[in-house]
Amino acid sequence: MLLIHCPYCDETLPELEFAYAGEAHIARPLDPSAMSDEEWRDFLFIRSNPKGPHFERWRHIHGCARFFNAVRDTVSDRFLMTYKAGEPRPDLSKLEAA
Amino acid sequence: MTRFSAFAVVKNALTGHTGWREQWPDAQPKKEYDVIIVGAGGHGLGAAYYLAKEHGITNVAVIDRGWLGGGNTGRNTTIIRSNYLYDESARLYDHALDLWDGLSQDLNYNVMFSRRGVMMLAHNVHDVQSFQRHVHSNRLNGVDNRWLSAEEAKEFCPPLNIRADARYPVMGAALQMRAGTARHDAVAWGYARTAAARGVDIIQNCPVIAIRRGPDGAVTGVDTARGFIGAKKVAVSAAGHTSVVMESAGVRMPLESFPLQALVSEPIKPVFPCVVMSNTVHAYISQSDKGELVIGSGTDQYTSYSQRGGLPLIEHTVAAICEIFPIFNRMRMLRKWGGTVDVTPDRSAIIGKTPVPNLFVNCGWGTGGFKATPGAAHVLAHTVATGEPHSLNAAFTLDRFRTGRLIDEAAAAAVAH
């Protein structure tokens, strides 16, 4: 079972309290009607699906119910860090060095 | 290749079983091939076999990072069925079911296809309506599927608990009698052996690092752990790793890779006559010929390449099995494992051309690729050999995520399938 740190509650809790919410940092289009089919495809369906560090959203559904972001290695399933929604995407090279 | 027959078994029994030879050679890569298939699972090996058999293309290599059949081909719960809602899916999966019928004879290798029936349980009004819609749609498409009342379901599968006060009440079931199971390892081995006998090279323990493209953008070959191997055409059939391989060719995929788990119990005497699926509670069960209960669960919620999932999911699945089949509540489980499944947004596969010339892809089979093995392999071989899709996989394009012509089995089933 994954142990996940909620950056709002500042507690590390079992996976059962959380809901996965897909890849992080995919911004909603600002001007949807101006988008081409290719841009819609990329926004709706294309995912990076990396083998390694993955930026993803989680929601502390059975706790504070807030969304936050995480960096998790998809090979080991180890969380490198979690951070509040709205914070900038962390620098991977610094994370891996730490 | 020695042909297997009753005569060969008797002859070898009389000579102390010293006459059996290796079933395929451990091939070393040549400099160049007409076709390279990345991924030696059932789909990739099958495609190599049909390329050789039906299209006369034998200068083919199937390359795998591990051992053949060691990915999802050897990790699934071996369920085979074709009762899908949409026309495109029903045709493709029923084509596969037709090929399953004669596969053991075709390959001269016993894949132990057992048409024991797959029964899908309806636990609530929504399930009843959804499954009856499936039954009607299937009948219009000529696909075997029929509706059973709870009592008829119990008669077909006696261990089933249909009491009204059950935790997961059974309100009926959809039954496909043509469906069943097969021995998954034998499928990979049978295709490998027969393809190798026709001249296909099977190269194991050789990870593909990148797909290489020429100045005109077309594929020129693959970089592997054993160096560069040239190819006129490349087909990627790498399941959970498809995103990673395709990324190296500059193609971003509409895929996410999730863990999918299964487990088996200790072996017991024959007690379970069919396959039962409960999509609503994510519990899938059958009994292998060895006697183990083979139990499948749903995908974990997060993406992962770890080939293992979380225990909460297994616990939920086993709890559901014990509720639906109370006779199993003192069974002990022997082992559990996980595979990495590549899931598309509409839960239908992608088989066809890519934006890169001479690069083809077969992926997105998600949680249900095993049942399609012969069909997917057959139409992939056609697509690679002719450069154009077969009529059966013409709708399963990569481009449908741009045009919006999805084959939305995800909405139809409301769960993994």
TrEMBL record, chain A:
GO terms for molecular function: sarcosine oxidase activity. Transmembrane segments: none annotated. One of its GO terms (biological process) is tetrahydrofolate metabolic process. It comes from the Bacteria. NCBIfam families: soxD. This is Sarcosine oxidase delta subunit.
